[in-house]
Design the sequence.
């Protein structure tokens, strides 16, 4: 099955995909809202305390992509808004995320 080329914020990393994200915690709802500085911008409905925003982010991504939570791992940016997340078990993760981007 043919897939569109990945956007700038996605790249192949071994058997998975590395998603480069710009995360804005403390939002009313969790949603992808477009690109920001070459990264996918996400608003997260969780506060940036006690790792709550990161946990919520990873669970939300797993749900969007239809993969187990264990297939989504934060590899960079634990305390930063600039995060890198490794996703395995999907062919083209951007297709599932892009169709839900709110503009």
Sequence:
């Amino acid at each position: 099955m043919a897939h569109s080329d990945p956007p700038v914020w996605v790249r192949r990393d071994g058997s998975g995909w590395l998603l480069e994200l710009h995360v804005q915690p403390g939002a009313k709802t969790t949603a992808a809202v477009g690109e920001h500085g070459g990264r996918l911008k996400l608003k997260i409905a969780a506060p940036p305390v006690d790792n709550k925003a990161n946990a919520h982010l990873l669970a939300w991504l797993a749900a969007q992509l239809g993969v187990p939570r264990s297939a989504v791992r934060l590899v960079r940016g634990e305390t930063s808004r600039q995060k890198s997340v490794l996703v395995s078990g999907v062919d083209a993760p951007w297709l599932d995320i892009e169709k839900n981007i709110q503009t």
About this structure: The domain at 10-98 is CATH 3.30.1200.10 (Conserved Hypothetical Protein Mth637; Chain: A;). Strands lie at 10-13, 16-25, 31-36, 39-44, 72-76, 82-87. The chain has a mean pLDDT of 93.
